[in-house]
Amino acid sequence: MPRQPTAALALIPALLHARLALAQPPPPQPRPAQPPPADRPPAEPPAASPTEAPTDPPAEAAQADRPEPLADRAAPDGEQKGEVIVIDSRSEKPLGAAVGAVDVVDRQAIRARGSRTVADALRGRIGLEVVPALRGTAVRAQGLDPTYTLILIDGLPAIGRIDGALDVDRLPVDGVERIEIMKGPSSALYGSDALGGVINIVSRDADRPLTAEGNAVVGSRGRADANLTAAGRQRVGAWRVATRAALGMRRSDGYDLDTSTPGTEGSEERSGDGALRLAATRGPWRIAAGGDYLRQDLRGVDQAAGGAVFDRRTLSENGAGTAQVSYQRESTRLSASLRHSVFHDQFLLDQQGSGELDEYELTDERLTSAAMLATSLLGRDHLATAGADGSAEGLSAARLEHDGSRERLGVYAQDEWMVVGRPQVILVPGVRLDLDTQFGAHATPKLNARWDVSDRVVARASAGLGYRAPDFRQLQLRFDNPGVGYRVEGNPDLEPETSVGETLSVDVEPIDSLSLAAQGYWNEIDNLIVIEPVDPDMPTDVMLYSYSNVGSARTRGVELQARAQLGRLLSATVGYTLADTLDREADHELPDRARHRGSFELRAQPIDRVTVAAHGELVGRRFFYSDADGDGVDEPQVAGRYAWIGARAEIAIGDNLSLYAGADNLTDAGDSKYLPVAPRAFYAGLRGHYERSDEPAGLAGR
Questions:
Q1: What is the DSSP letter of 13?
Q2: 51, 290, 481, 667 - which has most CB atoms within 10 Å?
Q3: Rounded CA gap, 422 and 96, in Å?
Q4: pLDDT tops 90 at residue 488
């Protein structure tokens, strides 16, 4: 029987009873933390203190009685200090005021690693796994497949999943301000696909009167990257207008991890991207609009099971346009956003020496997403959030029985209730109702809690339901492979996959330069969609397979993390994850999941103008399952332990130039069967940066 979310729920009344029983006569009750005013960019903290939550003027006295949130000070290396996030409640708030456990990869961390893509920036983050996928690289959260992690760009869904996974190695980070991560079932806020967690990629805005930046990199395997960014902010009448434009290109050769075969694991890449973003603020109003385009050309060689060799080419184009508007007055904030995305993907297999087995597939996907949100302080102790979002999606693909289309509408609400003001106890109940033209209605509730045990200890608990709607492939696929003797058909009667999840976590800051975090999680997934024979006893030369809701699985684990800062000389982060997974139908672990996984990140400034950084993962044994001897029973195959390490050093030359060099995968981990990742590579680059920080007349202080 699936395990019910009893542990996290049982903790919540215990916390309330303990605090209320010991409570002293209460001081003036502070209100829940407010989002920063709409006309102040997140990069500009309040003048009073960069670690204090932004407040409206009437709330200043109440905020003085509120304990400073631990998370505002929990990252001594500055990685998260003073951050503003939206993923916790879909509305801006200081990271230190988050009720749920949120991780942030900020711009400083992205640059320190020398990340090219979102995949590079997320590698080694606690609770996440960056893994090879059918197309590119995908992300797993808490042991769940990439299919169950929702990827957002500025709060709205990203497009372009192949076989259920979004290739995060396709997304450049030149225009990324930060990446927000929230693990565990999040469907009560974000709907379908958020069964395992949510990753929100937040775009950069201009925060200075004028900036310009350029990068050029060369490296192993023919690597040549370049990007150029220009941004500025100025007054236009009564409006303050920020503009940012960026161009980038990447190229590299492929790689072959098994030279005994003609196939290649890594593709030759030629890609380019561009983005334009404008934002204007005036008093309580903020309006933003932008567009981005990405073109990626991948080429490699495949070898089929029968020995035929193919030249493989994938040409993908992704374009999107976004518009956002928000209004904030005192304790009320209203916002609306709209995003239209298109994904055009061409896949070609050209058989060498013959055209008999050539294959061409064209996929066109369109997604229009819209969201509306209202947040308001009710009384002194309740911060209420209500919203609605909807989408219209279309997909055309050769392997679908017919073109797919679906519309979704979701409404949600939550209340951030400060039960006790000092020490702080907050409860956040929430619920969402989704309507889908494919399967009807689905409701997902949640309950989060936060208890500031002291100024240096914060405990959190959450319990909720998650779900994932079947995709077009599972509903409408029609794929014939007569050469091998099977056919796969979609099932239009599929139901959503569902989950029950809970987490318990505690953050401790024993001293100012050290922070510790521990989190336990448990997820039960039911109604899993799997492929199985329709009728194994049917007398036919072609076996028919289809999708059905018969699977179930469990993931549970413990995540530990420590951060330390030794003055300005060295900052270090180390993490460890113990994961336990189970495929209940097959009665074995989920494939390609390591029980033990460690990570580290180091940053140092040994001498003036020189910075060095290193990060990496240590991954334990993983199991894969296949019927190697043809007896109808899957046997386990073991993939050994491995370590992946990257390092980078940078030296500043004057105020505007810097040289850097680095290496990826120093241990040269990888193999063609179980770990098809890029081998050891070295690179060097030049970065130029110009900034004018003085405010033009009439703009300073606004």
A1: H
A2: 290
A3: 16
A4: no
The stretch 69-84 carries a mean pLDDT of 43
Burial class (CB in 10 A: 0-12, 13-18, 19+), 384: middle
Query: Buried b / exposed e across 460-482, counting CB within 10 Å, b at 16+?
Result: bbbbbbbbbbbbbbbbbbeeeee
Give the Cα separation of 82 and 95 in Å (integer). Answer: 7
3-class DSSP state for residue 8?
A: helix
- Across the chain, what does the average pLDDT equal? 86
Residues 126-151 pLDDT 10s: 999 999 998 889 999 999 999 999 99
Whether omega before 423 lies within 30 degrees of 0, making that bond cis, reads yes
Tell which wins on pLDDT, 267 or 485: 267
Quote the CA–CA distance of 394 and 367 in Å, as a whole number.
Answer: 7
Q: How many CB atoms are closer than 10 A to CB 18? A: 13
Backbone φ, ψ for residue 154 (5° rounding): 55, 40
Cβ–Cβ < 8 Å for 456, 510: yes
Residues 387, 374 contacting (CB under 8 angstroms):
yes
**Which residue, 449, 454, 469, 466, is CA-closest to 408?**
469
Dig out the tokens for 530 from the structure. Answer: 């799997």
Provide the 8-state DSSP code for 393: E
Whether residue 389 contacts residue 432, with contact meaning beta carbons closer than 8 Å, is answered with no
Contact criterion met (CB below 8 Å) for 395 and 362: no
Distance CA 353, CA 303 (A): 13
C-alpha to C-alpha distances, 487 to 336, 358, 404, 546, 560, nearest whole angstrom? 45, 19, 20, 8, 45
Judge contact between 298 and 267, C-beta under 8 A. Answer: yes
Which are the contacts of 21, defined by CB distance < 8 A and separation ≥ 6? none
pLDDT at 480: 72
> Would you give the DSSP letter of residue 109?
H
Which neighbouring-strand residues pair with 277? 244, 290
Residue 684 half-sphere exposure toward CB, CA atoms < 13 A: 2
Q: Return the structure tokens found at 47.
A: 């003048």
Note the residue count of the chain.
702
| pLDDT for 405 beyond 50 | yes
Are residues 290 and 280 in contact, defined by beta-carbon separation less than 8 angstroms? no
CA distances from 18 to 13, 22, 26, 299, 417 (A): 8, 6, 15, 62, 17
What type of residue is 443?
A
**Would you say 238 and 652 are in contact if contact means Cβ atoms under 8 Å apart?**
no
